[in-house]
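Holo prediction — biotinyl-5-AMP.
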Amino acid sequence: MDTKILDLFKKHGNEYLSGEDISRKLKISRAAVWKHIEKLREIGYDIEAMPHLGYKLKSVPDKMIPDEIRYGLNTRIFGKKIYSFESTDSTNKIAYDLASRGADEGVTVLAEQQKKGKGRLGRIWISPPGGIYMSCIIRPDIMPNEIQEFTLVAALSVADSIRGLTGLEAQIKWPNDILINRKKVCGILTEMKAESDRIDFIILGIGINANTNEKILPQRATSLKAELKGRISRVELVRSILFNLEKEYGIFKEKGFKGIRDEIKNLSATLGKRVKVTSYDRIYEGEAMDIDEQGALILRLDTGIMQRILSGDVVLVR
Ligand code: BT5
């Protein structure tokens, strides 16, 4: 019913809606209308009440409320079911548990903050309020060694969404970061459950410093708010990411990684740069030449040898 009332407000734009109108249209009592309006106000919706005129929705809260995200979300899989939390340890952990119990592809978990946000290799993802912490379940029919390609599917979706919504020049730093002005604004953690030759599910975990106060972030990190000098609508950004994930995942399923490879290369912050890569306790230095058809980074070492790297940590040397 709350959703229906919000839909009515949105359809009526800037006009007042009388309690009587709402009660007639939704076939509930005037007292029930009042109760729902009070509940929406508690969540943070600013609803004005004027004698003789009725109610008007003045602003929606800066919260990632599932109904707000679903409003106008044009997807068939991603975000059709959204679980949202004020605070949780890690959205990846929740999504993993849900997927283990059979949750469908596209199920999405969101949190306003995380107490134990995870990076790769046991590292910590700092997750204060104002950021976006989201995890999506997918169940692709691929081999476990192809998982790194999905990190890039997610990276492309996020970079495109940031560009589309803010105009900021978001770039993909292989394998799992999004940078703006060479600073990290987003990290992606892809986890999976698999048997030797079959993936059961993958969790795409996306952390974005959106309206985050950049002062509490590590060095070489930034937030969209800091770059834009203004806040963004996290609801719109999440909606756009879900839409782009569905689009890129669809292309991937049809054409494989090669279907999105060029776009990823075009948005790369890594290619053409001199980089230092730490991969499985080995350090390589050279020029980043290419991202191949399996999403691996091709590095030209100083010896001239071409080194293929499947995963690792990249530092841009210059
Ligand atoms: C990542 O790891 O970049 C993956 C981050 C994934 C976070 C999302 S949030 C939703 C979902 N639920 C989770 O629990 N996790 C996922 P990695 O490449 O290992 O980078 C981690 C490093 O980035 C840390 O060691 C810090 O140096 C730095 N870092 C930590 N928090 C950061 C932040 N908020 N912004 C920028 N850099 C950060």
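READOUT: The radius of gyration is 22 Å.
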